[in-house]
Amino acid sequence: TRQSNASSPSTSTSTAARDELARWFTKIRTRAPTLPPPAERFERDADAGSRAPSRAVAAKRALDALGASLRITSRTKAHENAHEGDDEASHALVPEVGDELIYHCVARTKDFELYSTRTRGVPRRTVLANDACDVTRALEVMLAAMSVGERWEARAAWSATYGDATAETRALDVDERLNPGDIIIYDVEVLAHNPVSVVRVREEKDGESKRVRLKNGGWARCTKTTTHPGVGWETPRPPFEVTIEYSAYVVHARKSAENNENVDDKEFIERTEVTFVVGDGRTPLALDAATRTLRLNEEALIWTNYGGFGTDASLMSKYSRLVPELPSDGSDAADGVVYKLKLVSMRHVRDVFNDGSTTKTRVELGQGEFPADCPMQDCTVRVHFTLSTATTSGVRTDLAVKYDTRTDVALKGEPYAFRLGCGAAPEALETSIRLMIPKERARVVLDLTLGEKARRHGYGAKNCRADAPGAEYCAVDNALATVQWDVVLESFDAAVNWYKADVQDMLNEALVIKEEANALFKTQVYELARSKYEKTLSKLESLRGLDEDDFEAVDAMKMTLGLNLVASLQRLNDHVSALARVNKILESHPDNAKALFRRSVSLLARHEFNAARDDLFACVDADPSSQSSIAKQLELVKRAEAAAAAQAKAAFGGKL
């Protein structure tokens, strides 16, 4: 055996070589895959201290960052005079972030073709923005670096295409013929790039706003190009009522069976005017979303790859649709749907409390601008209104007029004047008035079929006085379903402008509101009192740069309002907030007897007996004249502590 081994060195050498080769293969198989470097963002450099690179430079850096995973094999220049290093030409031709690119693309492997826009005859569109981009990372980087008219060919590794993390976030559809590791060969030509606005297409699903995933992969996308600017600043939102004028078409690119040439099979919708409530589901999702971005009289071209109503659209909803689904066969709009859209009018409809109980509809525009000319702050307003009620709700409500300020003998034809925030009108009406401008006419509807959620905003609620006009017609009655006010804001006294007024004017305003809050507190309308104390205190706490005299006057008012706010919170059984507020007072005034006493009240309510007792002793030291009232409070602490101990003993039965 020794002779055999010794006589065949080539055998042992070949065995060692095979073992070495096997170890090398094992090492290659088990090593971590080579990943491309992190994708460079195309946005401007966030570092204010450094100069952000030009768009062309940023695009080139992103292209270089992919390294060997994206290799450009052929380039055809857009203009012969655009030479290498010509920065001015590069700046002019390279697309900007957020531009929409229109391009032809043929994608294939060495064995088969994945898709070809040239075969279909319709170019593709994409937007260079993370939320709206729907191409592979390699193709995105190519398009960002290409000028209009350029044509590139490139080989992209799997790690830069469907193996990149963006493929999953963009929900790209992977051809079933592809295998991980396949090389994708792109032939791309940029036809145009234009600045657009990206419109987010969402649907409400399970109480959440979610993106719409298409049947053939990718997300629903939408872009807007304004062709005629609108007026004003406000755009419609749910539940605004709008009237739009639109026309639409969708292109189905197909091959002719006779001569194998491209044929455009178009679906048209002639110019039509429709009225609907934003978000009511009677228009396609993309059209509804685009409408929300328009200003009054604005005209725009809308492109979207989804002309449907959402994945949860019910069969019954088809009968109430105002705009048909495109394409009509329910398929994905691979080549896009184009809408020509104009916002003709919009009626302001607001869900006042965002709970569906109260809606305010603007009937006639007033004088001024919203919200600058609205009585947002507590002030005196003068209104005329008609009160109507019904025992049913909905569009077929049979309303009966019950009260009109114009015929109220006590008012003698004058508008009803009252201070906001004092319970002189139901919260539904008062809050709606705060959203009106002078001479505006509005309709406010309270849907009492929603139960307590709605009743707390109407007559009979704790924050509405019993003598509020119309209250006698809206007593708590289970049969009453709808309360409607047709109201006109005649005028209001503007509140003090806390950004421009003198300190003394601010203090006078604070004094008026404090007295109103004190009156509400005495009549046990604690919630409104709390609100007035809190808002006024917040304004005073925001003042800065006061001189010594003004500081002392403001500090005294803050102290009074703070202590009254604590008392209101305690009456509302919100002892956690009361403690937070009184602790803030004691930080700057540790010997204030009233603050110590009121803190002891909240500590007692939380069964912190020792701490409550300590505060009462400190209160005696700070104000010896209060001994009699403190003695009574100490007795309350003693009895409450004994009661708590007896209750604990009864509950545990001597087990502890």
Would you kindly provide a written description of the structure presented here, covering whatever features stand out?
This protein is α+β, with helices and mostly antiparallel strands and 656 residues long. Helix content is 32%, strand content 24%. The chain is built from 17 helices and 21 strands. It has helices at residues 2-7, 9-30, 55-65, 87-93, 117-120, 137-145, 165-169, 285-291, 427-434, 452-455, 503-522, 526-541, 548-571, 575-588, 593-605, 609-622, 627-652, and strands at 70-76, 99-108, 113-116, 124-127, 151-156, 184-195, 197-198, 202-205, 208-211, 222-228, 241-255, 262-277, 299-304, 337-347, 349-351, 358-364, 380-390, 400-404, 416-419, 441-447, 482-492. The strands form four sheets. Strands 15, 16, 17, 18, 19, 20 and 21 form a seven-stranded antiparallel β-sheet that branches. Helix 14 packs antiparallel against helix 15. The radius of gyration is 36 Å and the shape is extended. Residues 1-7, 40-50, 80-92 and 255-260 have low confidence and may be disordered.
Instruction: Identify low-pLDDT runs.
Output: 1-7, 40-50, 80-92, 255-260
Task: Kindly report the oligomeric state of this protein.
Answer: single chain
> Structural class of the secondary structure composition?
alpha+beta
Beta-strand content: 15-25%
Main sheet makeup: 7 strands, antiparallel
Round the mean pLDDT to the nearest integer and report it. Answer: 86
Taking Cα atoms only, what radius of gyration do you get, to the nearest Å? 36 Å
Number of helices: 17
